[in-house]
Amino acid sequence: MPTKTQPHKLIDLLKSRTPTKLPSYEWQESALKIIKELNVPNFKRSAVFKVCRDKHKQLVEQCLNDTKELCQTGEKWKYFFKIVGK
């Protein structure tokens, strides 16, 4: 038979859980995906968000695919920015 303290523990667990904030816009999701896949350093992450916000989604995806395909060694994020800049 459940005691009175058991439901309180469940409630405490639910209250202590911090909800994760989901991206508000689609371009934010794209930026997070690029940051993860290309291992973009912290000081360049804002630039990825700016590219995803300002450029067309298809262009950004094409540049990401080209980067993964063509840059086998080295820092992929630098190659990504070179392609986007052209």
Task: Write up this protein.
The protein is mostly helical and 86 residues long. It has one domain (24-85). It has five helices and no strands. The longest helix has 14 residues, at 57-70. The mean pLDDT is 86.
Q: Secondary structure elements and their pairing?
A:
Elements: H1 5-16, H2 26-38, H3 45-54, H4 57-70, H5 76-85
Helix pairs in contact: 2-3, 2-4, 4-5
Global geometry: elongated
Which whole number gives the mean pLDDT? 86
Low-confidence stretches: none
Q: Summarize the amount of helix as a percent range.
A: 55-70%
Strand content: under 5%
Write a brief structural summary:
The protein has 86 residues and is mostly helical. The protein has 5 helices and no strands. The protein has helices spanning 5-16, 26-38, 45-54, 57-70, 76-85.
What are the main properties of this structure?
single chain, 5 helices, 86 residues, 69% helix, 0% strand, mainly alpha
